[in-house]
Amino acid sequence: MPHEAFVQLSCPECSKTWEETPSDLPAPDDNYACPACNASARTSEFLHTNRDLETLKQLQE
């Protein structure tokens, strides 16, 4: 079983940072809510870097 990648997330509202596996996240254009403050935005807006966004897109294909 391959090791799953993690992506870094950062809340645009409360600045909380955390990691998730791409399979646990909605698609980049779907809504996602911060587990700390419940702020809601597109998943892509929570991703810390463009590399995290690319990883999410690749692993969700």
What does this structure look like?
The structure is a single chain. With 61 residues, the chain is α+β, with helices and mostly antiparallel strands. It has one domain. The protein has two helices and four strands. The longest helix is centred in the last third of the chain and has 10 residues, at 50-59. The two termini are 18 Å apart. The model has no long low-confidence stretch (mean pLDDT 93).
Query: What's the number of helices?
Result: 2
Class derived from helix and strand content: alpha+beta
- What percentage of amino acids are in beta strands? 15-25%
Shape: globular
Helix content: 10-25%
Total domain modules: 1
Give the strand tally: 4
First-to-last CA distance: 18 Å
Helix-strand string: EEEEHH
How do the helices and strands line up, and which of them pair or pack?
Elements: E1 7-10, E2 17-20, E3 31-33, E4 40-42, H1 43-46, H2 50-59
Antiparallel strand pairs: 1-2, 3-4
Would you kindly provide a brief summary of this structure?
Residues 3-60 form the DUF7836 domain. It holds the Pfam family DUF7836. This protein has 61 residues and is of the alpha+beta class.
List keywords for this structure.
single chain; 61 residues; alpha+beta; two-stranded antiparallel ribbon; 23% helix; DUF7836
